[in-house]
Design a protein that fits this description.
The complex is a heterodimer of chains A (250) and B (183). Chain A is 58% helix and 6% strand. The longest helix of chain A has 36 residues. Chain A is an alpha+beta fold and 250 residues long. In chain B, α4 runs antiparallel to α5 and α4 packs parallel to α6. The termini of chain B are far apart. The chains are: A alpha+beta (250), B mainly alpha (183).
Chain lengths: 250, 183
Amino acid sequence: MIVESKNKEQTIKVVFGLMIFAFSLALAYFIASYLRSNHYFDYWGALMIAGGLFITIGVFVSSIIPVSLGFLFSADILVLHVLMANFGDFADGIKVLFVGLILAILYLLAWSEFSKPEFEPKTREATPKPGVVPQPPVSLVADDVFQVEDPPPANELNKLIEQIDLTGTSKVTFYPLSQPAFSTSEPSIIRIALYTKQVFSKSEFKPGELAEYYKLFVSTYIPTLPQEKVKVVLSKMSEFVSVGGRFEVV
Amino acid sequence: MGIFTIIFLWPFMVLAAGLVFVVFGDLFDSGGFFPFRLFFSFPALVVFVVALLMIRSRAAKLAQESGQEVSVYQMYMIRRAMLIFSIAILFPTFIRYLVDSMDKNLAVIILALLLAFSFIVWGIFAKSHTTIMYGNIIGGAIALFYLYIQLWDLGEGPRIIAAAFGLAVAVAVSIIKLRERTT
């Protein structure tokens, strides 16, 4: 039901975008033809002005993606048509500058957008074996440009931890060696503690014993707490991992 | 990705890819009754669209095998292919226009040669940026091919310069690459 309504919404967006694209393009060509036939204005100049106008409108309505993209793709067609007809008449210096500018922007895009590592296969195993440090699944998914409103999918580790039942528990207390104890009743932290206990089958650790596990965990788990709390938690946990100790869930 | 990037990414990439066909038409236009640009550009456009469709179906297969979300992976691969294609063709075009604008001056050709070799070397060493790697190597190779033809036409002195340059770069890159493999 949810998938169907999502598809329907996507279809409506595409349809409206196509309508705006078609009508804006038609309007530009009709106006340019009218101006040319009455000798009011140059045909190609009119198309370029229309293209510039559509780009401006596309920027201003960028919050409404189908409308913005409709105008911007329409501007693309106008600019490319003008270039196709007149590029040979440009001076070589202008051509160098124009092509150089486009190339520079392409390299910027390539550097920022595609410098992420290649896609890696998702790991299939979800249940960790007792006593074995799990390899958190590494999943790198590029964002899709038409799905900006959708939240990113939670990864496997978050899903595993969310499934842990907290019935009968109220808080977790950490007793780091030679450091004052600290506790929290934050459900996500309690779940993480229980998950750790499930993985290692114990809740008492030597100094540095959890270092590798902690590093993998932090690089994979998506925090659900606010940023300020995350900083405090990370600081306390890294201390606990480094000095060792035990924790208790009550 | 920011909203600004999302709004402009696809239209800009369509513009860049479209510019490739515009310059095809400009470079291969012989005028006359039947404009050659249409004769060359349109089939090239058809080939380009077919290639994108093939990439799309291949990406779907790879995504299913690796457990990725199919539509997201397809969009990623198409964007990447368009970017590589645009860079690979626009770079030698830029070189060609640069050389033409300076009336094929020897100094400019040598500068362009240096630029082309630099981009190829950058591409060889940009292992973590495969888009730049493919774009630079293919674009640089095409640019070098054009530049060597220009140098050949200029006489024996430029030919010697071209050969010496190529040799120096090949030796330098080989030493660096082979040293990486042996250490």
